[in-house]
Amino acid sequence: MKLGIILQSNKPERAWNAFRLGITALKAGHQAEIFLMNEGAELDTIPDSANFDISMKITEFKELKGEIYACGTCLKIRGKEESKVCPISTMSDLLKMIESSDKVLVF
What we know:
Layout (H helix, E strand, L loop, with lengths): L1 E6 L4 H16 L3 E6 L17 H10 L3 E5 H6 L10 E2 L1 H10 L2 E4 L1
Parallel strand pairs: 1-2, 1-5, 2-3, 3-4
InterPro entries: DsrEFH-like, Sulphur_relay_DsrE/F-like
């Protein structure tokens, strides 16, 4: 199964759980992609804490061959030219992810 995850929050617990689900799917032999939009495009600024080791989850997700994309317009609105964790993408890329996914979840 191919899982498409849209992360539209910069809340640490939501980001952490989105990546935990993606990691679990990848370890089970599925494909997983995460698209960052809205506040989710701020992923690289969410600090790690004792409860939420977000940077470690991002690293693990990538090591398992999970794909991450960031909405270019959402980055631009926030005064960013690029994401430190993934390539800049477009609504067309998001549409492709949705069309090719068996399930799409929004966090």
